[in-house]
Amino acid sequence: MQSGGGGAHGALRSTSQVPQALEVPTHVGRPAASTKKGRHMPKMKTKKSAAKRFTIRASGSIKRGQASKRHLLTKRTTKNKRHLRGPAALHPSDERSVRRMLPNS
């Protein structure tokens, strides 16, 4: 057994071994301007449900998937199912709302 109360927890024996309070910087990994409250705008967040449904093409038009192709296909004609294949372009009247939901695209 150790004298001085060393034990399993390794108690310090003299005051010279007591560590000083560590200074933790508050700006680790952040730019200096964002450390002050109210100095930056909030981030524009993407609506993830819209991001899964729409993609913006290189030309700027928005691509969407066709509806009515998930289930109950036995009652549809072959011609109808064939015409529903592939992506479709979004209607121009809906583009504004979709672009708001996808700010970083």
Features:
105 residues, alpha+beta, Factor Xa Inhibitor, three-stranded antiparallel beta sheet, 3 strands, 21% helix, elongated
CATH class wording of the domain at 41-105: Few Secondary Structures
> In angstroms, what separates the terminal alpha carbons?
67 Å
In DSSP terms (H or I, runs of 4 or more residues), the helix count works out at 3
Tell me how many strands there are: 3
Characterize the overall form.
Answer: elongated
Helix-strand pattern: HEEHEH
Question: What does the main sheet amount to?
Answer: 3 strands, antiparallel
Mean pLDDT: 83
Oligomer: single chain
Supply the CATH architecture of the domain at 41-105: Irregular
> What structural category arises from helix and sheet content?
alpha+beta
Q: What is the helical fraction, as a range of percent?
A: 10-25%
| Strand arrangement in the largest pleated sheet | 1-2-3
CATH topology of the domain at 41-105, anyone? Factor Xa Inhibitor
Radius of gyration: 30 Å
**Low-confidence parts:** none
Strand proportion, as a percent range, falls in 5-15%
